[in-house]
């Protein structure tokens, strides 16, 4: 005769109800217990929503939060400090500490690539690229729709891949992620900035590659950019652009404020120094 515990674990509705009580982190790791647990989590729409693998319904356009798993792994993207982030900041992340961690993170089927950036998620990722030149500035913009994709919402693979190619491909570059309220739900925009370096003869891809091994990697070349025009003139000659942006990220919504971000930077730099000394 089966025990009460065994009967619960083999009744899909009861097991789902039990797993739903777990904190998100424990729910994610519960999939390692057994294939049965893994199958139960993957087949449950509510549990998939809790783990940010499936879109939650939009009830309140302003009631959104960022993915806590992504926040820890991709902290610079969720900082709402006034400074933009560059490649040196990315190199402070834990998974870049050694080649073994880096390879595991950049594995082609890494689960983070399928995760939604926030809940409830937007269905479109906007991209704005600023270029600062000696004679003038220029800008272009694009939108990537996810409605026809499996996720039907913005996933972290697009945000990461496009950022990675930008900061590793341009010598002087940075980025920022903006999430703003709208009547139809949160709107997410990835801002990319770079400066044209006329005095540099050659610039190679960053030596410690951060490129994902996924065959479905997003690239800037595949993005349909449209050149942004000046407000009162079609010509960019001699123009300087306002390259700042705003965001609706707050601590309550899972964002990282300037004090927490500076503390994180100092901690990560000390950790790197200890590794080098050892």
Set out the fold topology:
Layout: H1 4-9, H2 12-19, H3 24-30, H4 35-43, H5 45-50, E1 65-66, H6 68-73, H7 87-90, H8 99-105, E2 118-119, E3 124-132, E4 137-145, H9 156-169, E5 173-180, E6 187-195, E7 226-227, H10 258-277
Parallel strand pairs: 3-6
Antiparallel strand pairs: 1-2, 3-4, 4-7, 5-6
Task: Give a description of the structure.
The protein is of the alpha+beta class and 278 residues long. The protein has 2 domains: 1-49, no CATH class; 52-277, no CATH class. The chain is built from 10 helices and 7 strands. The chain has helices at 4-9, 12-19, 24-30, 35-43, 45-50, 68-73, 87-90, 99-105, 156-169, 258-277, and strands spanning 65-66, 118-119, 124-132, 137-145, 173-180, 187-195, 226-227. The protein has a 5-stranded mixed β-sheet with strand order 5-6-3-4-7, covered by helices on one side. A two-stranded antiparallel ribbon has the order 1-2. The longest helix has 20 residues, at 258-277. It is globular and about 75 Å long. The model has no long low-confidence stretch (mean pLDDT 86).
Short description:
Helices cover about 30% and strands about 15% of the residues.
List descriptors.
single chain, 278 residues, alpha+beta, 2 domains, five-stranded mixed β-sheet, two-stranded antiparallel sheet, 10 helices, 7 strands, globular
Number of domains: 2
pLDDT averaged residue by residue: 86
Return Rg in Å: 21 Å
Indicate the structural class: alpha+beta
Organism: Melanomma pulvis-pyrius CBS 109.77
Domain F-box: 12-46
Protein name: F-box domain-containing protein
Pfam families: F-box
